[in-house]
Backbone:
């Protein structure tokens, strides 16, 4: 974000007609602690606002929050479930973060996630007998999931790069299309006896879980964390390395900061748009693959409770920093786990919306000093 | 009524909700403010309208509540992007989440409400006797459909032929110039974002109180809010084109249903009749065609070198250089 430092003005910028006027003065220097303080403050404010709304509809916010906390972080077993929910959030969060860095709005992580899940299932359904080795299954499923996710990112990337078609709408519409596409396969050709799901995958196509090693190491029993979480953390490392240590990443950041300068510097923006969208789609697709092979062990209708949308908030709350995606995703994974325990069901989504709002409003505090003045 | 008259008749009714939402977004964007929260505002409008109508037994009161709810949400967006100058895309997305979440919380238990009143339905005498056009446009329509017919020319005239419309366009194209002529850019932007929210709320209320009465959680609006945003681009920010688009998309929604009911098309077996699972491909159609419509809109924009209001998405900072 570039802020021009304005020369002293005869009078402050006029706000809307309120009994007082609000003037924003750009900060010359941003103190190190300030972004952290405003982020924490916005989380606190979001919780407070949610609590007020819960009170209004007749709930008890303290019991609700406590129930969410206990259900998500209460003991090792539920924390493991929280990590399982965090896994797709990390991968889809990265799928939003990477394009956001070049101000490319990928809202399609949800659809790319579905295509990835479909791609992984395709391997099970077509290629092998049921007794192939996991060493064959898992890499191929990951590749296929990544590939089909990337395909779903390629379409809006190409349209944006070649015809300047608004990627927000195309990625969003492709979400719906992906949902119906998967529905066709699980209701139709791949349906198990008319149910809305494929048959369970063979054991060789399951990602290993900690619980699988309980015979070797007792405390692992019942822990559901699977290899996908490792994929997710590795993906964070890869995206971090890409953004900070490669020319590719440098060009992404350059386009995000100043597309005109990037163009002038000879960055091929069209090509970058397509590649970044494919990479993002692939990451989300890997998330879908990890979900079907690590958790559900079959493809079914509506396997995602909106991971791809929550991912947008995860990426933003992480301030587009790949490492910060991990703790934020764990927090939101906990929110998903926890909010299953309480009614009404929209609370988690509402909290997410309020949080995103308080967060972007708070960012103004980082960039400007706010002055209230009485209207003349 | 024949097959097509049926589809277009339903299309005009469905399209009316889409029309209100599209017109609202069009006004906000003309003023230079992109509001991606249409789906959220529609959901809030839908739940507020239905809930109020259920509680008071008055559908008109419900509709008013829906409009107020949409307007309230849009003001949040206005404060965040106009006064606080936050990113319009992110704020709009936040609004979508917030609207959907709030609507789900407030609409808890509303799905089972019974005996909720709906808005009145009218037929225009004589006009409804016309072949094809009668049943499509004038027979047995919700009162809001007729409001929609009136809105199209009014908005067209307002935007292109009045002083206020000129100010609206100026604020979206070149706010600094508008400001130097004494137009209050901030106030106008607030006003048109609010107008957009009220219209989106009206669209939501139109769905729950008239077009498909009832509250069915977040599926009530079935992505109409997003289609509305795409239609604004397709329509090149022109209200008449927006109306045509809205009615066509409304028809498409009905077409995907009716197309499964025919056994043969020109003597060829209709696959959608024989294989029920293929319905999912029909259901993709509105979304796929939205992309296509967007493509057409974008191509037109490139060819004619016109399109989005020049200051769309940019915050206006009075007295600062480098801002449009």
Residues:
């Amino acid at each position: 974000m570039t802020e021009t430092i304005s020369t002293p003005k005869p009078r402050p910028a006029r706000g809307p007609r309120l009994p007082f006027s609000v003037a924003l003065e750009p900060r010359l220097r941003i103190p190190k602690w300030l972004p952290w303080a405003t982020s924490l403050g916005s989380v606190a404010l979001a919780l407070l606002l949610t609590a007020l709304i819960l009170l209004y509809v007749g709930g008890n916010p303290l019991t609700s929050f406590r129930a969410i906390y206990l259900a998500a972080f209460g003991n090792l077993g539920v924390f493991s479930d929280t990590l399982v929910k965090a896994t797709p959030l990390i991968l889809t969060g990265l799928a939003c973060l990477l394009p956001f860095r070049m101000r490319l709005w990928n809202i399609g992580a949800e659809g790319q996630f579905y295509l990835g899940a479909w791609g992984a299932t395709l391997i099970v359904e077509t290629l092998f007998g049921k007794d192939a080795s996991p060493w064959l299954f898992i890499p191929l499923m990951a590749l296929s999931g990544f590939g089909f996710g990337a395909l779903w990112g390629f379409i809006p990337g190409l349209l944006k790069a070649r015809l300047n078609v608004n990627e927000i709408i195309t990625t969003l519409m492709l979400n719906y299309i992906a949902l119906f596409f998967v529905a066709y396969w699980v209701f139709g050709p791949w349906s198990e006896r008319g149910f809305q799901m494929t048959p369970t995958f063979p054991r060789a196509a399951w990602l290993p879980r900690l619980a699988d090693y309980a015979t070797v190491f007792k405390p692992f029993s019942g822990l559901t964390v699977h290899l996908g979480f490792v994929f997710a953390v590795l993906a964070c490392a890869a995206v971090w390395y890409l953004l900070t240590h490669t020319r590719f990443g440098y060009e992404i950041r350059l386009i995000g900061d100043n597309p005109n300068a990037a163009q002038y510097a000879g960055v091929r923006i069209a090509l970058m748009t397509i590649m970044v969208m494919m990479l993002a789609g692939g990451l989300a697709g890997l998330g879908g693959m990890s979900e079907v092979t690590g958790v559900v062990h079959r493809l079914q209708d509506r396997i995602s409770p909106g991971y791809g949308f929550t991912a947008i908030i995860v990426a933003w709350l992480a301030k587009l920093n790949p490492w910060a995606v991990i703790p934020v995703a764990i927090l939101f994974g906990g929110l998903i786990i926890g909010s299953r325990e309480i009614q009404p069901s929209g609370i988690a989504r509402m909290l997410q919306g309020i949080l995103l709002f308080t967060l972007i409003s708070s960012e103004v505090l980082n960039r400007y000093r706010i002055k209230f003045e009485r209207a003349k | 009524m024949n097959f097509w008259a049926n589809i277009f008749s339903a299309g005009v009714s469905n399209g009316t909700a889409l029309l209100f939402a599209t017109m609202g977004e069009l006004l906000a964007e003309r003023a230079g403010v992109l509001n991606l929260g249409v789906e959220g505002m529609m959901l809030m409008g839908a739940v507020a309208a239905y809930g109020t109508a259920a509680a008071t037994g008055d559908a008109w009161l419900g509709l008013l509540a829906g409009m107020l709810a949409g307007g309230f949400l849009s003001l949040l967006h206005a404060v965040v992007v106009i006064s606080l100058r936050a990113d319009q895309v992110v704020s709009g997305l936040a609004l979508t989440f917030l609207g959907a979440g709030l609507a789900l919380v407030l609409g808890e238990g509303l799905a089972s409400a019974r005996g909720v009143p709906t808005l009145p339905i009218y037929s225009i005498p004589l006009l409804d006797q016309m072949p094809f056009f009668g049943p499509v446009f004038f027979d047995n329509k919700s009162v809001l459909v007729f409001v929609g017919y009136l809105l199209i020319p009014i908005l067209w005239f307002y935007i292109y032929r009045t002083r206020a419309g000129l100010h609206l366009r100026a604020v979206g194209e070149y706010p600094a110039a508008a400001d130097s002529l004494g137009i209050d850019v901030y106030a106008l932007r607030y006003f048109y974002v609010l107008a957009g929210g009220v219209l989106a709320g009206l669209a939501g209320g139109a769905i729950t109180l008239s077009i498909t009465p009832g509250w069915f959680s977040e599926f009530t609006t079935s992505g109409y809010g997003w289609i509305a945003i795409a239609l604004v681009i397709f329509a090149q920010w022109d209200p008449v084109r927006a109306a045509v688009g809205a009615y066509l998309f409304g028809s498409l929604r009905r077409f995907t249903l009716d197309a499964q009911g025919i056994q043969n098309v020109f003597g060829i077996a209709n696959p959608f009749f024989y294989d029920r699972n293929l319905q999912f491909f029909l259901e993709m159609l509105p979304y796929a065609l939205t992309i296509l419509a967007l493509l057409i809109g974008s191509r037109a924009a490139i060819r004619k070198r016109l399109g989005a209001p020049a200051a769309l998405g940019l915050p206006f900072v009075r007295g600062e250089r480098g801002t449009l």
In short: Confidence is low (pLDDT under 50) at residues 1-15 of chain A.
